[in-house]
Design brief:
It is a single chain. The chain is an alpha/beta fold. It has a domain of 107 residues: 3-Layer(aba) Sandwich (Hypothetical Protein Ychn, Chain: A). The protein is 36% helix and 16% strand. The chain contains five helices and five strands. It has a five-stranded parallel β-sheet with strand order 4-3-2-1-5, sandwiched between helices. The chain is globular.
Length: 154
């Protein structure tokens, strides 16, 4: 059986989709998949994902409906506006929500691993996170990644 190991280290909306899409697709293709959520990526395992936002700042490749100078991106409210616009676009295009993708991963047998060190570092409580996940450290990830056909850092 092929194996895929993914590190999810970012918690913004645009960086939340790739690990869930790749993991669920690989699982559907018969891969044994494990995703290790560390640092800011750990927030993608929180029960409530409503605070996951997109950041237009420092993301020059982000297509905007109207050309916008970089300076405008630092104005208050731009992050919320960009998040609403992106969520609307995803919905209009029929792309599953983060919650739906995460549930698809769990249903497909993808192992989601919360980094215990990050949990401690940022004072997360296990009650903050969804059920059905595992907890581990770098050694947990490396043990699996060392045997994987595909390893990704997102």
């Amino acid at each position: 059986m092929k194996k895929m190991a993914i590190i999810a280290s970012k918690g913004t909306l645009d960086m939340a989709y790739p690990p869930f899409i790749l993991a669920s697709t690989a699982a559907a293709l018969g891969f044994d998949v494990k995703v290790f959520f560390t640092f800011y990526g750990l927030q993608l395992l929180k029960k409530d994902l409503s605070d996951v936002k997109i950041s237009p700042l420092g993301n020059p490749a982000m297509p905007m409906p109207v050309p916008m100078p970089s300076l405008v991106q630092v104005l208050p409210g731009m992050e919320s506006m960009a998040t609403v616009m992106m969520k609307d676009k995803l919905k209009k295009k029929g792309v599953a929500s983060l919650e739906e993708l995460r549930d698809m991963c769990l249903e497909a047998g993808v192992t989601l691993i919360a980094c215990q060190m990050t949990l401690d570092l940022f004072d997360f409580k296990r009650d903050d996170l969804i059920d059905g996940i595992e907890y581990g450290g770098a050694a947990t990830y490396l043990d699996f990644a060392g045997e994987s056909n595909v390893s990704l850092f997102i």
